[in-house]
Amino acid sequence: MQYQISGKQIDIGEALQTHVRDDLGAVVQKYAERPTNAQVVFSKSAHEFVCEATVHLSTGLTAQAKAHATEIYAAFDGCSEKMEKQLRRYKRRLKDHHKERAQPVELSGAASYILASDVGADDSEPETLQPMIVAEMETKIPSLSVGEAVMQMELAGAPVLVFRNEGKDGLNVVYRREDGNIGWIDP
Fold first, then answer.
1. pLDDT digits over 137-157, tens only?
2. SUPFAM superfamilies of this UniProt entry (predicted)?
3. Are residues 22 and 58 in the same domain?
4. Given 97, 125, 154, which residue is the final one in a domain?
5. Domain encompassing residue 31
């Protein structure tokens, strides 16, 4: 597995990098058969250290975790515990469904836009109804079953996931509702 360990405006020592490789490697090997790469980013937010980790699995699914602590090692340990919990749940779901994905998840390209919000704007009428585009990016839409999409959304910690439904070959959306349940939009 390839590791990319970096710090945002802080220096990451060799001892911390070794600790991350050993600890995260043990967690990932325990619950995931074929991880491809891991990205760990350390940063500082006020008086706390923040650790963000992303692990890409060969099935195309991605697990993400984030933790805060006053010490950098404690921030990584918290992040590692969250990652272990996510991967344990992922592995349990695979066993419960008795389904192993033999082929990697198929990804198709799409455009992603970030629109400017009108928060804090005066109460006057806008000149046009066209929103102002702040950023334009390329994103990937995975081809998954509904169960895998829910699992991917939970692994990524995202509130919503757009995916191509394998069963019907159309675009679908799963999202977390305010009551804590999962919603599924199937047009």
1. 787 888 888 888 888 888 777
2. Ribosome binding protein Y (YfiA homologue)
3. yes
4. 97
5. 2-97
Which neighbouring-strand residues pair with 161?
Answer: 174
pTM of the model: 0.60
* CATH number of the domain where residue 12 is located: 3.30.160.100
Residue 174 φ then ψ, to 5°: -115, 145
If asked whether residues 134 and 91 sit together in one domain, one would say no
> Do 82 and 8 belong together in one domain?
yes
From the number of C-beta atoms within 10 Å of its C-beta (0-12, 13-18, 19+), residue 80 rates as: buried
The one-letter amino acid code at 127 reads: E
In whole angstroms, how far apart are CA 12 and each of 9, 18, 47, 105, 145? 10, 10, 17, 33, 39
Strands 171-176 and 160-165, how do they pair? Answer: antiparallel
pLDDT in tens, 77-116: 999 999 888 888 877 776 654 455 556 666 667 766 666 6
Does residue 167 register a pLDDT over 80?
Answer: no
Instruction: Report, as an integer, the average pLDDT of 109-133.
Output: 65
Whole-angstrom distance, CA of residue 127 vs CA of residue 101:
51
CB contact at 8 A, 160 and 66: no
- The DSSP code for 105 is P
Strands 133-144 and 160-165: parallel
